[in-house]
Amino acid sequence: MTIIEKIITAHSNQQSVKPGDIVDVIIDTRAARDFGGANVVKNLIDNGLTIADSTKTFFTFDCNPGGSDQKYAANQHYCRQFARENNIHVYDVNSGIGTHLAIDHGLVWPGSTFVSTDSHANILGAIGSFGQGMGDQDIAAAWAKGSVWFKVPESVKINLTGKRPSNLSAKDIVLNLLSIFGANKLLGYAVEIYGEETEKFTLSERMTISSMGTEMGTIIILFPTSSTLLQELKEINGKQYHMVTADPDAGYKKTFDIDLSSFKIMVAKPGHPHDDTTIESVRNTKIDSGFIGSCTNGRLEDLRIAAAILRNRKVAPGVVLKIVPATDEIWTKAMEEGLVQIFKNAGAMVSNAGCAGCAAGQVGQNGPGEVTISTGNRNFEGKQGKGFVYLASPAVVAASAIAGFITTPDLIPDHPTLFQTKCPHEAKQVAPVKKIKSAKPTVVEGDVWIIPKDDIDTDMIFHNRYLTITDIKEMGQYAFDNLKGFEDFAKKAKAGDIVITGKNFGAGSSRQQAVDCFLSLGISCILAESYGAIYERNAINAAMPILTYLPEILTQVDLRNGDHIQVDFTSGELINQRNKKQARINKFYDAQMAIYKNGGLL
């Protein structure tokens, strides 16, 4: 078996599992963050559910450590009260990023299982652990039952051959991989990474690469453990762990041999983490701000790299550099080592530990037209603010902040580039709320919205600025208001309409609202070539009908925007009522139908 198959087998009542099997997986550690936590609690209370084991259940308040938003503050307090009543430990606003705390505090270990409302919970692949980001209903089920249903994924092996260039960071490695595989070529796979050089990767480097598995569409990026890694974990939390590896005869769907020595220093261009280019093509691009932090690059190792470049230098005039350590322990060590003083002397702002701009809840946001270079994991339009975000390594961000433009540490000029212009701000109108359609038929009819785009992420579907909304009736008005060309979708959509789109629909975050906004509008079903792994689960668990189809189907039935079609969830039959042409799409599978007929997972 592969690594993921071995872990799932060990946490189920099966002797072995294979790809495609749907099994109940026992979850060792179950967490909820501050933005999803309130909805998890609401699901538990509304359904009369109790906590299966409070010693394995945690809150992690990492999205808005400052509680600077009233709705975040209210949600955090709501969760604290629930935690007190149920003896649940809270890693509060002074703690840091939940997934990092889980590793550093020994809440997870090689071979363990972990779920969180954090879509980057698969960062645990760095230590050979199975972590998954899930939606509010999934987490509520895990808290109440101690296990969740899961479909065993196919596994893919990546062999990184050749020597690692001396100036190549872990962020560069994962951006190179993103440029090769994009956001959907590895969609739904568990990926294992091997190679002589990978065995030398530090824990921080492994975490950087595994964290961005979500942006590649993978279920998880897993590294087999090494003696070096186990020793590093022991030094962090004092615990001794065992090796986790695949069997020698493990079966993989695909194997890729990739020359690591050919990798270059890379930057992701604004809009998509997989829109990558060599730094030479964007060098000298003027920036307004820089951000060092996030679950991808907020480790002590990352801060040391930045400090070495910033020492005895100043951030360019007018440029704002924001630095946010991943955890409070890392913050403290950075202070003890003098790194914080270096950052302050350079003119950077250092904030308390957390997710920062990535979660729209703390420092790191940018304004309209602002150009930011960031070590974050995502740069979807609107994700880190209303500006433009380039993704890069800590070294490149630090060097660029000093220069005032995108560059590398070896090409920092003697004098920084100064600003010439400003960017205006424009307000956005929101659509009115629409009513929820409650019927759950197995055959539906509706007018078609054809949205011919791949990789529509959850920020395009339901932007993170609305994440504090917990009332489903309020959600519909924001559907697609961050998707270019479809900002007026919510105003024009009618109850019963059907959305048809491309590959990897729902990529990105674990937010349930990106499903619930369509339920709020009464959309009868969504058809896509494929879905983001978390989004697919969220839709099924919320009884939102989603189906997949092959692209030739659209031609087969001569489908046009606005056509009235009929879809049968049981048979997969699709009929275009305009011309009576018929085709077959993929029908509901048994577990999906069972959850749908139940009215949802809970």
Structural notes for this entry:
The protein has 602 residues and is α/β, with parallel strands linked by helices. It has three domains: 3-262, Aconitase, domain 3; 282-411, Aconitase, domain 3, CATH 3.30.499; 443-597, Aconitase, domain 4. Helices cover 28% and strands 18% of the residues. The strands form six sheets. It has a seven-stranded mixed β-sheet with strand order 22-21-20-19-23-24-25. A hairpin with a 7-residue loop joins strand 12 and strand 13 (276-278). Helix 2 (34-46) packs across helix 3 (70-86), helix 6 (170-181) runs parallel beside helix 7 and helix 10 (300-310) packs across helix 12. The longest helix has 17 residues, at 70-86.
Characteristic key phrases:
602 residues; alpha/beta; Aconitase, domain 3; Aconitase, domain 4; 3 domains; 5-stranded parallel β-sheet; 28% helix
